[in-house]
Amino acid sequence: MVDKVNDDFSEGQFIKIKEAEVKKKFSEVAIQKGHVKVWESGKERALDCTLESLSDSEKEQPIKISLRIKEDIDTKGLNGKELFIYFSIKKSKFFSKGRVENIEDATNVKLVLDGELYKLDQRKSKRITTFPSHRVYSYIKIQEGGGGEVIHLNRPKDHLHNFFKNFQKQVLHSQFNSSNPLEKDFMDDYIGFRVLDLSNDGLSFLLNHIEADYFKKLKRSFKMILNFNGKEDVIENCSISYLIPYVNPSLGSLSLYKLGLSFKKIDGLIERPMEEDQENGAELARFASFMK
Q1: φ/ψ of residue 84, rounded to 5
Q2: What's the pTM?
Q3: CA angle 236, 241, 245 (to 5 degrees)
Q4: What is the topology classification, in CATH, of domain 135-274?
Q5: Which residues pair with 48 in a beta bridge?
Q6: How confident is the model at residue 29 (pLDDT cuts 50, 70, 90)?
């Protein structure tokens, strides 16, 4: 098993903790009856647990931990399953793996750890790759032309148009918090894109030739709503840094462009904790992939 992840994971790497320190780290969490997440490989949903106790095993014996699952599930289905484990100590994030040895009751299970513990080295990157690991979307307010007319994107009005509009509206609503509903005319005023990479003062995304023609016509700065893992930022005075053809042999004759935007720096934007992405837990998925 390798000790660190490859360079594709630009946000950081998994560093193996020394064997003598593994039990100490789990003990710190157990003393506090701290919060732990466990999940099966290939499963998107992680289970919230409390680390209740740690076995007093000999040095040569594997470490065993008792977890109380805080969710209503059939714990019998976990018997014998291999589970990935996540917890944090202060601002450090730790990952491990174990197998369910015993189902103690409806909410408590005992795991035998595989003996290895990894720490995520969170390097301060100036830019992070957001696609496909994180759900980051840019919604840009459509401008009017110089004479007050709206610059139209001229999307095709074929029989799929209404279906596309309804589907996109449902997606937009699902991406925003229910406590902050979209305006009724949101779909008419904004156009949305999936962000490829993000920094504290800029981002980029792909667009087709019709959308590229629209951005070429923009003569002034514009407003954007940034949705980063379910959190929204309204950003004024955005501007285009570059608009270049996107070359990818796997796309064949498909014509795409890459657009870079810049905006006033938002301190801490790319350091927002990724475990708040409850739906698919990007770091949890990364660790599962790393351990294969």
Answers
A1: -90, 150
A2: 0.47
A3: 130
A4: Thrombin, subunit H (2.40.10)
A5: 37
A6: very high
Percent of the chain with pLDDT over 70: 71
Class at the top of the CATH hierarchy for domain 12-125: mainly beta
> Can you give the residue ranges of every domain in the chain?
12-125, 135-274
Listing DSSP states for the chain in one string gives --SS--TT-TTEEEEEPPHHHHHHHHHHHHHTT-EEEEEETT-SPPEEEEEEEE----TTSPPEEEEEE-S---GGGGTT-EEEEEEEETTEEEEEEEEEEEE-SSSEEEEEEEEEEEEEEE---SEEE-TTTS-EEEEEEPPB-TTS-B-------STTHHHHHHHHHHHHHHHS-TTSPPPTTHHHHEEEEEEEEEETTEEEEEEEHHHHHHHHT--S-EEEEEEETTEEEEEEEEEEEEEEEE--GGGTT--EEEEEEE-S--TTGGGS-GGG-TTT-HHHHHHHHHT-
